[in-house]
Amino acid sequence: MSAELRINIQGKNPPVWAIGDQSGSYFSYYENEHGEQWVAKIDDGFLRISGIELEWEQLQLTVEEAIAENNRIVDQIVAGTLMQSKDIPESVGKAYLEIAESHRRGYQGELPLAHLIFGSGELLWLASVLNTAISRMK
Q: Residue 43 has what DSSP assignment?
């Protein structure tokens, strides 16, 4: 038995791949507290991500780009958590930032999502999407 999930995509010209039947493929939807929507789908060996903040422009990631973005986003989440914690010495946070910088230096390509600013909920959603996509795209 399967159920149908219906979502209302806002704005003009959402990506065609975000509309209609999503069975048989990985599809993820996120809406933040401001009503800003994001969608992601694995399609033809790529991870496609789009959002209303991008006026539904599509970003397409290879598995290598997804791995690099996942490392960067998880680093950002962990560093933010460490810096906000009062129980963790500042030196630990600084050491982690050095590790995060080494991850960035280790990737030679352009990071497709790096020019965007994400809220904490969006970062957590992206980390989940990227983690799932990496295992399915390999």
A: E
